[in-house]
Amino acid sequence: MKGKTVNTMNNLLINYKYRTREAALLDLLEGNVFFAKPSQFHINNDKLEGEFVMETNASTFLSAVNEALNIIKIKRGESTTNSIKPSPTFIEMVTMENKNFIKQIKELGIFSASTTYDNQAMWSHYCKSEGMCFELEWDQKLVEELHLIISKVEYSNKPRVINRDIIFKNMLIELGNKHPEWSINKICNFSLSTEFRKKWMQEFILNCSCIKRVCWEYEDEIRLLSPKSQTFNMLKNILKSVYMFIPQFNNPNFQEEINKSRLLRMIWVQLVDKYPDVKFYGLSYDKSGKLNKEEIVLRKYTK
User: Fold this and answer.
1) Cα Dmax for the chain
2) pLDDT digits (tens, 9 = 90+) for 187-210
3) What is the pLDDT of residue 1?
4) In a domain? residue 62
5) Is residue 36 left, alpha or beta, with left meaning phi > 0 and alpha meaning psi from -120 to 50?
6) Averaged over 176-183, what is the pLDDT?
7) 55 and 131 housed in the same domain
8) For residue 1, is it within any domain?
9) What does DSSP say about strands 154-155 and 211-212: parallel, antiparallel, or unpaired?
10) Do 102 and 149 belong together in one domain?
């Protein structure tokens, strides 16, 4: 698979989470944001989540490294030779790294969101058409503190074959291009640094976790990746708006909807009491298919 680049554009920091009414209420009550393991997506979502074939071994990795170094040498007008020789230590290192890379993917935490709140297929799939959509805004500083990676998902039906040696090779060539003044020795030494290895792991994670089958393309997904599956109590910090479809809505009709549903009443109370700065919007489509959005000011609930 082609190497995937980390995308930390500001527009990815604002994203949308589709929830059923039951899930929305639980989120508001607890204030939690959950990063799930890849295996947890198998239950109701993508059966291929986190599944891939690793084709890297000591032989392929050695070939990739020497090929990268020779490409750098040719650009510099130097003679080509195999700079790295096979050894038991090298084979042991590659085998151990393979295990560590796979372990990291299994322990990864994934938070899935979308780019918009008005995706009708998403409302049907994840909200049962009656749920809510949370608008979330992630502070860049918070993302860095939690060591999160943010990226758009790419969609492809190509086989899920991951070659971390090819990722390494491309990174090595990029390093040589960036630092033409560095010797081959210095490039090799830097490739063993924590900085280089961290970026290599990051690129590997993106290839394994941010490429899905084309059938999921309608989701237009944004993913936040955590080093491990965990729960953060931070919904208050990132929740900015809540969207809900209300047929032919206006304030009186919304009050009527609330009176009919105990769940909605509980959600209303949570928003007013715990999330007073969060905006609430009612959505509806007119006969032409145009989306209407209107802010509804929530006050203390009274029948």
Assistant:
1) 84
2) 999 998 999 998 998 898 888 888
3) 37
4) yes
5) beta
6) 95
7) yes
8) no
9) parallel
10) yes
* Residues 133 and 190 placed together within one structural domain of the fold: yes
φ, ψ dihedrals at 6, nearest 5°: -65, 135
Name the helix (H) or strand (E) containing 279.
strand 279-285
pLDDT at 10 exceeding the cut of 80: no
Do 254 and 127 belong together in one domain?
A: no
Cα–Cα distance for residue pair 109/37, rounded to 1 Å? 5
Q: What angle do CA 42, 8, 233 make, to 5 degrees?
A: 60
Q: What are phi and psi of 185, to 5 degrees?
A: -60, -45
pLDDT tens digits along 34-83:
999 887 775 556 667 767 777 788 888 889 999 999 999 999 999 887 76
Looking at residue 88, its pLDDT comes to 80
Expressed as residue numbers, the domain containing 300 is 246-303
Examine the domain organization and report whether 164 and 295 are in the same domain. no
Angstrom distance (rounded) from CA 36 to CA 228 = 9
* Cβ neighbour number for residue 86 with a 10 Å cutoff: 11
User: Where are the alpha helices (H) located in the chain, listed in sequence order?
Assistant: 21-30, 58-76, 88-107, 120-127, 140-145, 164-178, 184-190, 194-209, 235-238, 251-260, 262-274
Nearest to 199 by CA among 233, 165, 168, 160: 168
- DSSP states along 77-145: TPPP---S---HHHHHHHHHHHHHHHHHHHH-EEEEEES-S--HHHHHHHHTTTSEEEEEE--HHHHHH
Alpha-carbon gap, residue 294 to 251, rounded angstroms: 10
Whether residue 52 sits in one domain with residue 181: yes
Contact 41, 211 (CB under 8 A): no
pTM score: 0.83
